């Protein structure tokens, strides 16, 4: 069976005061049906732009999808007319944002907003839609739905709002859920509850694309993953293999940044240095200034394209055509 989503050679550019920058650079990955895929990296690495390109939510301008294909259910979403794309959004692709207020209208009651989604796509009466919205609030763990349906978003806590957002994204049973840092704005206890809730709502018909900077979230939620750095995928593969044997020095750095509670380590460590400006990338590897394994050739030439090593793929001079150098 072909994958539900195939992103092929995607490039997304943004116009800035200082010229065009490439936010997503020749990216390819696939998400099979009923599986969970994580896209991880530091902020500014291009993961959100990649994810938002799928439902075509990248603002154009200043953004521009300049190359590539996004095959969803066998059709290239980038070639669809806007009306057909709108029909797919919500019904077949649900999006959970980091900050629910991005997606929820502050001016309308929770019940109206949920019922509207059902009413538009399912052609049921508003009364039935409202009843269904109440059922969904219960499903996402919001007690007393009759009262909550009448509430405005600002009257709910951050955790409650995120539960409403999850209900909104899942209410039409989409085939793909895109979750962009869905727990980052929440405190740790609520984070765990929201991840549990999301996991409980996934089934073999639903695929998840999880965007996060947190390897712990990837471990909890995903079966396969890609690591992004400076607009490119630097490593990809099954989560288990990648955690057991991270090949790219950046992936290893991210692993060391997993909070102690998840790693049984003494304390959190960080990758020193900063992501280079996408407007001024170095000639060689974009990670060279931060890499503990940097070699002279890394400064001169960009790393080769992703190449297979076991079940993983990695783009790094350490893993060229010759057997991989010893890893630490
Ligand atoms: Fe480090 Fe070189 Fe690999 Fe870049 S290509 S990650 S600098 S070893």
Automatic annotation (TrEMBL):
Pfam family, one: oligo_HPY
Topology class, membrane: Peripheral membrane protein
One GO-annotated biological process of the protein: peptide transport
Any Gene Ontology CC annotation: plasma membrane
Compartments in which it is found: Cell inner membrane
ABC transporter domain ranges (all copies): 5-255
InterPro entries: AAA+_ATPase, ABC_Ni/Peptide_Import, ABC_transporter-like_ATP-bd, ABC_transporter-like_CS, Oligopep_ABC_C, P-loop_NTPase
GO MF annotations, alphabetized: ATP binding; ATP hydrolysis activity
SMART domains documented for this protein: AAA
Cited CDD domains: ABC_NikE_OppD_transporters (cd03257)
Keyword list, A-Z: ATP-binding, Cell membrane, Membrane, Nucleotide-binding, Transport
Segment forming the signal sequence: none
Family, as annotated: Belongs to the ABC transporter superfamily.
NCBIfam families for this protein: oligo_HPY
PANTHER family per UniProt: DIPEPTIDE TRANSPORT ATP-BINDING PROTEIN DPPD, OLIGOPEPTIDE TRANSPORT ATP-BINDING PROTEIN APPD
Designated name of the protein: Oligopeptide/dipeptide ABC transporter ATP-binding protein
Species assigned in the record: Oligosphaera ethanolica
